[in-house]
Amino acid sequence: MLVEKNVPLQPYNTFHIVAKALVLVRLGKLEDLQAVIAHPELGPAPKFVLGGGSNIVLTGDVKPLVLKVELMGRRLLEETPKAFIVEAGAGESWHGLVAWTLQNGYPGLENLALIPGTVGGSPVQNIGAYGVELQDRFESLDAVDLVTGESFTLNAAQCGFGYRDSVFKHAGTLGLAGRALITRVRLRLPKPWKPVLGYADLDKKMAQTRVASPTAQQIFDWVCEVRRAKLPDPQVTGNAGSFFKNPTVTAEQCADIIAREPRIVHYRLDDGSVKLAAGWLIDACGWKGKSVGQAGVYEKQALVLVNRGGAQGSAGGSGGATGGEVMLLAKAIQTSVYERFGIRLEPEPVVV
Ligand code: EPU
What is the pTM of this model? Predict the structure, then answer.
């Protein structure tokens, strides 16, 4: 086990915010984690688990011990008449896994193409896009208790999945935030494969290309094209994807808002509640293209906050946006959306 000090975290967070880990240990194998837990000083120290850094805002140097998850491996664990069960190490790239499953003939993850981050991060916030959420393809995961060092396995029910939510995002007695490190994830890809269509952006692609029965590879390519057109590439422009969750309101609240704002983009959910497009709300408040310092609102998608210093910090050497600037911008957006619509937007990324 190698204990590194003062490690720059700019390359390890997709916002490319400049900050350091005071102490960092890379976990390339499970034994590294066991060595940390057994260590007289590192064992009892507070810990921060770092995956792909695609859903965090760093507001300063990270004082807890940073555990950088680099546990690799991908394999077909089992094929049954009803599904392929695929297993991957938590440190694998999520998009790399999606591409690998398609190349090997195990379709089912194509709608989740190009989501930044690692396999281990995918259950934490129950990643989702174009009509599919991780929980729809989830089988189970292995994790290690950061206090006792014991391994355990959780099924979908035990992960407590919700919209961009799971037990791993909650502290306290019911949650596992800061208490567990995900080591491996297993996914269930049902047979026979069925496409998940019906999302407006994919319908548009079907109409444009006149492909009525797309293959999984075709959907993968469409999702990549839609995302590249709408969302900034974190390699070029630092960002953490959608900065806020799409808020849910009751049918009565929605009727009230629609009466005032007839053009509001909304989707009715099965339980009678209504999901509002946070991007539309922010856009309607005029935020597209606005900035606080070097933190800005993306010109093509108001739900995405970006680092105007680019991927490597600004050319002038000021290091690009700070986490403080990102959070100031986020607060100003929340205030203006609340004042105009009476809706509180909840951030998606974890503020560190
Ligand atoms: N809209 C605007 N102005 C904007 C942005 C959006 O009017 O500036 C409108 C769009 O025209 C559209 C609606 O809002 O009618 C929804 O926009 P979009 O289809 O781009 O999806 P979203 O709700 O903004 C969600 C997820 C994305 C996911 C896409 C596709 C959340 C918070 N975000 O975005 O996930 O890729 O749907 O399924 O649920 C992420 O979580 O990081 C992420 C990128």
Answer: 0.95
